């Protein structure tokens, strides 16, 4: 393979972000010394995509994926599980495609330390991995104790459910156990946080569950913000489907929670109002996943600054960070963005091994939200680099669902949400819907 | 020239190309040629925000600039060098405070530096700087929903600060659109400037602090401060707007 054709391929990877039409084997099948070793930490939307596309772009690379769980549950569509629209195993994905079809070595352990100077990853099982390039897709951690009284123990009683898994199940069990006429209180986080429309989709689908099973129940959102993603579309949908059920209390109307008493399911706002819930969902302020902080990749904000051209970390060489942990605004913290960024990082890594410049990237994102099973809304964006090399939303691109729309459009957007989920999960994990 | 090392450190740390306070006419006018010293106060801002509509800002540090009784700080002024108008907030202290802990939420429409000028009773000036990056998030679409008329819902909570006898935290918020005069209404016309201009605090009838607000303070102005007081003291608050409205509120310290 010549440099020219590889360059063309990389250009395609970086700019289209869609490689499904490419042949799987691009290089000679003869056994060779690997071109280099790339370790990928984290098997979510960003990490699994990076591992896959590194192998697709250059099978001569040795790629190791480190992910503690054998089954990965997605945050996207976990709200559908909470609303009773999807079963638990319908948001589950595994690493069979990476292991069996793509030749990625998958190690189910936790990366406990990274030495960016010595290019070593230490695993919780004691193993040490050396790398030529590292991709980190560490996701988020909660900032425990940024709200007084809310720590890991409190999260067992008042779940955040903002990392899909046990937390999501706790919240669903509590909703199922709640009597009709109960009060569900959500504490919504300040920006920046994972999945900007997520809290409001969650409220919508819990309202759907209440409407079907516990119609006298109420929902209060206590928000640390004065505005939120797709706000007009959400509030229109709430008015149509759940009139009178959902109350949103903004920052400027004393919505900011400063203290949580998880045992009593009580919260106190900054002006001393006490709200007592039957089910309490506290989504606290967030930061980059612990391993990014341990590796010294975060700045004072708690998030990881990256070079937008390649998603290489600003604070270490040969390390690429993608997904929610990064500072990538105007791109939101979404699974789709992590997937898009991972393809750009994979292309940049393959280019660096080939000794050629990384292709000029652009990125896409769509956030579908369900307000009800047949009522979907969306926001889409396309992103590239401006003249100074900073990330920007391509002027005139993307946009929101219209405020005025008939039921057919909302229904078709709801169907598209499912199609989007099935397509991206097939892209990332090879899951066949 | 005490300011040099400070500015140098900021430039190195943040990679910012700083316009010094010398470039800000409002600060030049205030200082009248006086050279400020580096301030001991800290000016806290997020490193970056995705939404510049309500950026938390706080100022902490000693209420004195030196060892002498007359060295207490009487004025603090906050400027934003990238906003249409540089003035943000001004605090006038009428009584010495052991320690300062001032909070607000402000509007920042682009990446820029904030400057804190403080003055002691002896007339000496001090300066502090902090940088902030504004990275608008594509998922956040600003709403044009501030249609409230005048001031409503004054909220005040005061509480004794644990481990600091005689020190109280006072937190306030009042609903008001804080129209800067720069915003277009739905009809395309500029919405006239109409802001809360001042919050005055007094304790047992004695003036304690005046806070002067400019258009860069967020809608529904939030102000929090630490004050020296005693249980059962009578705290009175008075908000005044640019169009002549006023609203009073009083509370007994717990």
Describe the model:
The complex is a heterodimer of chains A (433) and B (254). Chain A is an alpha/beta fold. Chain A contains 11 helices and 26 strands. Chain A folds into 2 domains: 16-139 and 289-362, FAD/NAD(P)-binding domain (3-Layer(bba) Sandwich); 148-284, FAD/NAD(P)-binding domain (3-Layer(bba) Sandwich). Helix content of chain A is 30%, strand content 25%. In chain A, the strands form 8 sheets. In chain A, strands 5-2-1-9-21 form a 5-stranded parallel sheet, covered by helices on one side. Chain A has a 4-stranded parallel sheet with strand order 13-12-11-17, with helices on one face. In chain A, strands 23, 24, 25 and 26 form a 4-stranded antiparallel sheet that branches. In chain A, strand 14 and strand 15 (266-269) form a beta hairpin. In chain A, helix 2 packs parallel to helix 10 (335-354), helix 2 crosses helix 11 and helix 7 (198-213) packs parallel to helix 8 (231-241). The longest helix of chain A has 23 residues, at 407-429. Chain B has 254 residues and is mainly beta. Chain B has a single domain, classed as Immunoglobulin-like (Sandwich). Chain B has 2 helices and 16 strands. Chain B has helices at 3-14, 25-31, and strands spanning 37-38, 42-44, 48-49, 55-62, 73-80, 87-93, 99-106, 112-120, 125-134, 152-160, 167-175, 196-203, 206-213, 222-228, 234-241, 246-252. In chain B, strands 1, 3, 5, 6, 8, 9, 12, 13, 15 and 16 form a 10-stranded mixed sheet that branches. A 6-stranded antiparallel sheet of chain B has the order 2-4-7-14-11-10, with no helix packed on it. In chain B, a hairpin with a 6-residue loop joins strand 10 (152-160) and strand 11. Chain B is globular, with a radius of gyration of 19 Å.
